[in-house]
Every structure is written in C-alpha cells, then in structure tokens.
Amino acid sequence: MSTITKYEVTDFETFHNVIDNKLTSTSKTRRAVDPSTEKELGDVPVSTQEDVDSAVAAAQAAFPSWRDLSQDDRAAYLSAFVDAIDAHQQQFAELLGKEAGKPPQAVGIELFLLSNQIREIIKFRLTEEEIENTDVRSIMLRHVPIGVGVGIIPWNFPMLLGIIKLVSALLVGNTFIWKPSPFSPYTALKLGELGAQIFPKGVFQVLSGGEDLGPMLTAHPGVGKISFTGSVATGKKIAQACAPTLKRFTLELGGNDVAIVLPDADLAATVPKIATLAYLHSGQVCFAIKRIYVHEDIYDAFLAAFVDFVKTLKSGGPADAEAALGPIQNSMQYAKLLDMYDQVSKQGWKSLTDSRIVAEEQFGPIVPLLKWSDEEDVLKRANASLMGLGGSVWSKDVKRAERLTRRLEAGTVWVNSHFEVGPQVGFGGHKHSGIGVESGIGGLKGWCNPQAVWVRN
User: Fold this and answer.
1) Chain segment 384-433, per-residue pLDDT in tens
2) CB count, 10 Å around CB of 109?
3) Three-state DSSP class for residue 142
4) How confident is the model at residue 351 (pLDDT cuts 50, 70, 90)?
5) With the C-alpha atoms ordered 24, 30, 35, 41, is the resulting torsion angle positive or negative?
6) pTM for this structure?
7) Alpha-carbon distances of 125 from 78, 99, 171, 319, rounded to whole Å
8) Is residue 376 part of a domain?
9) Can 252 be counted among the known catalytic residues?
10) Which PROSITE patterns does the annotation name (predicted)?
11) Which string of DSSP letters, residue by residue, matches 227-248?
C-alpha cells in the first residue's frame, strides 16, 4: 500500500462525491438540516445515473486486484483508515453532532464503537474449511468475495452502521460504494474523502443523493450485493429490486424489542438500565427497548421509579455536554411520532395492549409499560410482533431468565442487559426484522459466495 503515513482532510465545510478516488461535483445539490437548530447545513451532491454508472465501473475495475491481495494486506489498509479517522476525531464529532442532532455523549459513543469495530474486525480471517481429506480426495469449502457491494445507510448512526458494512466488505475482498441517508450525508462524504487518500482507486466510494439514488444502485447490473439498514417497508422494496439481477442482499430492518421484567428483579439496578436503553438516542435505535412487560407484583413500583429516572435525563443538542437526549433527527420521523402519540391518546390508555404503540415500532421516545402475571401469556404477547430483532429478560434468577430468552423469537437475546453488540458476533433479525447478519465472522461470510473445492488425488 501507499508509503504515505499522514492523511489529512482540512476542509469539513464543503462536500463532494468520491468516485474513483476523485472528489466530484454534481449540477444539482441539496441540503440537510441540523435537527437541533433546524438550520440548513452545507450543500451536498445529488447523484445522477451517470454518477452511479461511473462509480460502479470504477468499483468493477478495482475489484480483481483488491480481491487478489491477501487478507493481511487489506487489513493494513483498513488499519491506516481507522488511524486516520481517529486523527480527525474532533472534526468528525462536530459534524456528526450537527447532522444527527446528537449531544456529545452520544457522539462519543458512536465514534468509540466505530473505531473499535474496525480494529477488532480486521483481526478476523476467513479460512478454508476442510470437509474431507483422504487418500482419494480432498474437499474444501472456501469463501470468495462477491464483487461490487453497496451499503445503504440510515440516518440514526450515519457513521457506525456504514463502517460495519464497509470494513466487512473490504476485508474479504469486495469493493464498496457507500450510499448515506439524505438526512445525514456529511460524515460519510468526509470518510470517503479520507479513504481516497488511503485505498486504491475504486475500492471505496461515496455517493450522496436523493430518494432516487437507492433504486438506481439496487437496479444496477454491475452491483453484486446490497447491504441495507432501515425500515421493514423499504427492506421489502430492496428485496424486490434485487430479484431481477439476483443480487445478494443483507437486510437489517426494524425492531420492536421487548424487555420482560420478572417479579424478583432488583428495581434499583434494573430501572436505570432499562430506561437508558429505551431512550438511547431518544429511542431512535433499532435495538432500543420498545415494549416493557413488568410483572403485576412490581408494576406500580417499577413505573414510579421509571418516571423518576426519565425525569433526570437532560435534553439538548450537540453543544450541550450534559445532555443525554437529542432531538428527533428529521421532520418525517417527528410527524410519525406525533401521529402515533395522537392515536394512542384517542384510543385511551386502557387499550394499550392493542395499540399501535405496542404493535408497531415507535422509533422515538414513546415507550409502553404493560402488566403481566402469567409466564406463558407474556411470552405469547412478546412473540406476537411480526418483528424479531432483540429481546431481554430481567431477573435475579439468571437460569430462569436465560430459559425464557430461549423462547423469544429474536435474533439477539440478553439476560439483565440489552443492546450489547460487538464485532465478536454477528447480529440480525428474525421474521420481519431482516435477513442475514452484520458483523462478526457471520458478517464476513455474508459478503462472500461459498465455493466448494473437490480435488481428486
């Protein structure tokens, strides 16, 4: 790789697409909004079909030589990339706070997780698996990269969720095009600008655009895989769009995560954790707790303690170092939350068990607390959702809690915790919460096609 050891981006005020390691402009631009101030941010490109074609062509051209590098060599590029990100941490922190509306605490969490994700994933290696080895023949299973990959990234974690896709795709030998959300494109474009100084041409590119950009990429015959994080409705559209060209895809979709609190739970320890994990990033997290089932014996005490704790959570924007909660990131999501809250009020609180607030993902700071008394009944209610991303059980009796988690229909389950994820293991959803996994060895394999190798001696 390049012998340059210092990579520098000095301008965090102007933004360009990154195509074939060149900063490119478009005739049309748009602006996103700082959700804390509702002021417009800088101009970003609005990509056209021509831009998409150019980026895909560059990625295709770069693929053979990038694929043929060793995993160690590709990891070295990624190591230089994360070092460069860390060196620009302050600039990225300020930009992330503005585009996502996150207070400093939340920004710091995302940047820490991002750096850790890259540094840990690049330690992994996909190796050939020996299936059979006799005097007559050998059979090996290997995993070969797909080709050009596209990551379609949501607005709630605009850096971290893209990095999870990028690092896995590149490490195993794919080239990658990053498509950020129109609501939060700024940090992605600067990551692309930094990456252009590090990776070979065409290996890592970033395209900003409007709502038509995603369909252009999913329909493109030169793209081999789409990795999408976002809503169930959009995920279904992506699956349909991939069908004509038989693209591979990974879908990490919505969640309606449940927390079941058993009657022996330690409220002093449990309530702050559950409340924090329900209101993290103002509830705008797929893995946030979105339904809380509390045993009737402790319901009133839990509710009182929960409300008291939530009152201590300070709201604020990127400039407020003490803030725990930021604004709703965009007007579209804000309108959805207002409608949901209005509908619940019209129904009356006693009808919560059938309410949209329970049946649908809120993706905001609205969390229902519901009573339960029978274990079989609460499991049935917990699993009634069409979504199955995560779920947790809270109790001093760890064995009982672990037994209950095994009956939850979800991709990740926890005991006395929630939203613990990391590069060690893949995460993904059951049912309508997705197909495939991100991160871990499973995430690496998701960026490959399996290939069986039969050799006759």
Assistant:
1) 999 999 999 999 999 999 999 999 999 999 999 999 999 999 999 999 99
2) 15
3) strand
4) very low
5) positive
6) 0.92
7) 14, 34, 9, 41
8) yes
9) yes
10) ALDEHYDE_DEHYDR_GLU
11) EEES-HHHHHHHHHHHGGGT-E
Q: Which residues, 6 or more positions from 122, have their beta carbon under 8 angstroms from its beta carbon?
A: 75, 78, 79, 167, 171
E strands, 343-447, are 369-372, 387-388, 390-394, 412-415, 430-431, 434-435
**Structure token digits, residue 77:** 């590029």
Determine the Cα–Cα distance for residues 93 and 84; give it in Å rounded to an integer.
14
Residue 2 lies in a domain: no
CA angle 221, 163, 241 (to 5 degrees): 25
- Alpha-carbon span 452 to 441, nearest angstrom: 18
Catalytic residue among 99, 110, 193, 252: 252
Measured CA to CA, the distance from residue 218 to residue 56 in angstroms comes to 11
**Plot region of 128 (φ>0 → left; ψ -120 to 50 → alpha; else → beta):** beta
Question: Residue 86: how many CB atoms within 10 A of its CB?
Answer: 14
Give residue-wise pLDDT tens across range 155-202. Answer: 889 999 999 999 999 999 999 999 999 999 999 999 999 999 999 999
In a domain, 427, yes or no: no
The CATH number that applies at residue 198 is: 3.40.605.10
Same domain membership, residue 414 and residue 302 = yes
Mean pLDDT over residues 293-315, rounded? 92
Domain range for 164 is: 17-253+433-456
Contacts of 36 (CB under 8 A, 6+ apart): 98, 101, 316, 317, 318, 319, 326, 327
Pair 449, 455: CB distance under 8 Å: no
Per-residue pLDDT tens over the stretch 220-274 = 999 999 999 999 999 999 999 999 999 999 999 999 999 999 999 999 999 999 9
Give the separation between CA 263 and CA 373, rounded to whole angstroms. Answer: 9
In a domain, 6, yes or no: no
CA pair distance 111, 133, nearest whole angstrom:
45
SS3 405: helix
The residues with which 54 forms a beta bridge, in sequence order, are none
Q: Is 197 helix (H, G, I), strand (E, B) or coil?
A: coil
